[in-house]
Amino acid sequence: MITQEEAEQAVHDIIENAPEMGKSKARKEYLEQYRKTKKAQLVQKATGTVQERESYAYAHPDYIQLLKDLETATENFERQNWIMRAWQITVDAWRTQESSRRISI
Q: 0.70 cut: is pTM over it?
């Protein structure tokens, strides 16, 4: 059984963590889009055939670092997303529980 206090704490936690979740999602989205820009910048700096220029871009340390940053941002967002979902499930379960309790009275 989920207590009212647990449900209220879950709502509080959702509200308190929403701004950080928003920042986390924004960072992930930004890096996903910036990856394309970075590749284009690196391709422009390279010389050779199209294939050689693209290979240069993908192998460049700056591009590899960007991918690592994207990995970290995605990991942070997903961790926060699943925590938020767990809090939401707690609130939903409490609502269902309370509704069932009222029906049985």
A: yes
